[in-house]
Amino acid sequence: MTEYKTAARLNGLDTLRAAAIVLVMAYHYMVVVSGKNTFGFMTEIGWAGVDLFFVLSGYLIGNQILSPIAQGRDFSLKTFYIKRLLRTLPNYYFILAMYFIFPLALGEKGAAPTWQFLTFTQNFGLRPGQTFTHSWSLCIEEQFYLILPAIALLIASFKGSRQLAWIAIGLAVVAGMIARSTAWLEHGRNAINAYDYYEHIYYSSFARFDELLPGVAIAMLKNFHVATYSKIMRKGNLLFVAGLTAVGTMFYLFSHFLVIPGYGFGFLMTTFGYPVLATSFAILTLSALSTNSILHRIRVPGATSIALWSYAIYLAHKPIFKLAISPLTKMGIDTNSILGIGIIITVSIFGGWLLFRLVETPFMELRARMYSVDGANGRATSNPAEALPKQSEAA
């Protein structure tokens, strides 16, 4: 049993990761299995689990990139990319292979070309109902991982790089709002239909990348504004209350005011709602990082394991949902009953654990032997013990 599995965890981040995957599963249960609001309000806002993942990824990856830069240490693009690929590709390609090996059981109404799946670009032109649609968010994250370190190194090469970095983040957020508003006016309700909304806005890299930026902003504060970050960290419980209030308010607005009944999100939600929600999640993330916060101090039972398996569960749960429907129906088990729901959710989590254990873990152990996991600083080590992850920020 390696330290990759047993390392000390950050409770707050684990809780948020676990919450994110639970939300996603609740939403996809309606999409794939039940066709109805099975989990009530959690189903309604379940789509936002991906937005929370975006913010967490923005912080974790941003911190790995910015920490060595802030400390004046060498940062190797090659090492960063290799470590990212060892983290993300094995699970992804395994599930992708399952879709191609069992097209009749797992296939949907059409699929992107194979080269797009292999290059994480299938979110371009993606429409609801196609094969492996939930990979759209992975595309955006992989594209973000590809671009962010190069941009960070470029900005760091200029004088006044801190100010330039904040300006770049601000301009990127504005660019995201412009991209969404323009796309909504062209492909929104009055223009075409909801399927075009998903293709040109919801799944679009240009329209969703800015949700990772609040996480990057946290990493900026932590590494380049240490005194300010320390002051913020002293307000952990205040951040927790503020974050919950902000997220709850946004969920209420999504459900009652920023949605067009029978269609989807309107212009205001599309243009401004996504980055505001991401900022709200960023406040919760700050609380999770504060040792003074109840979110940081309390370990929610099961959250550590679910968080550790979350990437594998995300990839595996939707095809497992689909595969479980027929056998349960043949056995006379209603997939909307407590028994049916319990079986499907349990099997999906177990499937995610298997993927984590048999595919993800060996490659993470290989990565640990190859490199230090100290903030992706690019420093290889010949000491295996030194190379193992020490805490849950090592992504």
UniProtKB/TrEMBL annotation:
<feature type="transmembrane region" description="Helical">
    <location>
        <begin position="265"/>
        <end position="286"/>
    </location>
</feature>
<feature type="domain" description="Acyltransferase 3">
    <location>
        <begin position="11"/>
        <end position="356"/>
    </location>
</feature>
<protein>
    <submittedName>
        <fullName>Acyltransferase family protein</fullName>
    </submittedName>
</protein>
<dbReference type="GO" id="GO:0016020">
    <property type="term" value="C:membrane"/>
</dbReference>
<feature type="transmembrane region" description="Helical">
    <location>
        <begin position="164"/>
        <end position="185"/>
    </location>
</feature>
<keyword id="KW-0472">Membrane</keyword>
<feature type="transmembrane region" description="Helical">
    <location>
        <begin position="12"/>
        <end position="32"/>
    </location>
</feature>
<feature type="transmembrane region" description="Helical">
    <location>
        <begin position="298"/>
        <end position="317"/>
    </location>
</feature>
<dbReference type="InterPro" id="IPR050879">
    <property type="entry name" value="Acyltransferase_3"/>
</dbReference>
<feature type="transmembrane region" description="Helical">
    <location>
        <begin position="337"/>
        <end position="359"/>
    </location>
</feature>
<keyword id="KW-1133">Transmembrane helix</keyword>
<dbReference type="GO" id="GO:0016747">
    <property type="term" value="F:acyltransferase activity, transferring groups other than amino-acyl groups"/>
</dbReference>
<keyword id="KW-0812">Transmembrane</keyword>
<keyword id="KW-0808">Transferase</keyword>
<dbReference type="InterPro" id="IPR002656">
    <property type="entry name" value="Acyl_transf_3_dom"/>
</dbReference>
<keyword id="KW-0012">Acyltransferase</keyword>
<dbReference type="Pfam" id="PF01757">
    <property type="entry name" value="Acyl_transf_3"/>
</dbReference>
<feature type="transmembrane region" description="Helical">
    <location>
        <begin position="236"/>
        <end position="259"/>
    </location>
</feature>
<feature type="transmembrane region" description="Helical">
    <location>
        <begin position="52"/>
        <end position="70"/>
    </location>
</feature>
<feature type="transmembrane region" description="Helical">
    <location>
        <begin position="91"/>
        <end position="107"/>
    </location>
</feature>
